[in-house]
Design brief:
This protein has 165 residues and is an alpha+beta fold. Helix content is 16%, strand content 30%. It has four helices and eight strands; from the N terminus they run ααααββββββββ. It has a four-stranded mixed sheet with strand order 1-6-5-4.
Length: 165
């Protein structure tokens, strides 16, 4: 009489239990470009030795990123102005506005300035402001020794804090 006992297969069990996140997906089909890169005979038997697949941008690798922590803000009618005093960040003092970039979103902004001499990047990230802003009406500019980030508020009311919760 044949036993109806089924043999447990750990690979099948894992696939059944974990689905696509199972450790055992060796048979998963790879895109053709990946298959071409990992062909064993090409990688192991190439007479020219190893091939460069990608190259890291050295300027980015060496770039230090510094967070801007000292700033003030003030209400100005429909605007909320964030002011960075370049006296507190001397590398920003004579930096041209072309070396700066500010990305505005409805609920926040991201400002960065790169010093071309030292390759240091100064950044102020505010992913969530107190209230929503108009990204297309918001702007940044430089006056004397200060960098202004002017956020155009969607509701003209006083903000007692800059960051949202």
């Amino acid at each position: 009489m044949e036993s109806e006992h089924q043999i447990n297969d750990p690979i099948s069990d894992s696939k059944q239990m974990h689905g696509k996140s199972s450790y055992y997906h060796a048979q998963t089909q790879l895109p053709d470009e990946v298959k071409n890169l990992i062909q064993k005979d090409v990688l192991l038997n190439d007479p020219n030795g190893p091939r460069l697949i990608t190259q890291k941008n050295e300027a980015t690798a060496e770039q230090r990123s510094l967070e801007i922590k000292q700033y003030v803000f003030m209400n100005d009618g429909p605007w909320m102005k964030v002011i960075i005093d370049s006296e507190k960040y001397p590398a920003l003092k004579d930096l041209p506005v072309e070396s700066m970039k500010c990305t505005f979103e409805e609920e926040g902004f991201y400002f960065e300035a790169v010093d071309p001499k030292s390759n240091e990047k100064y950044a102020l990230a505010m992913p969530r402001t107190r209230e929503k802003i108009f990204p297309d009406k918001s702007k940044y500019y430089v006056r004397k020794n200060k960098i202004y980030i002017a956020l155009h508020k969607q509701k003209e009311e006083e903000w007692w804090t800059l960051k949202g919760v």
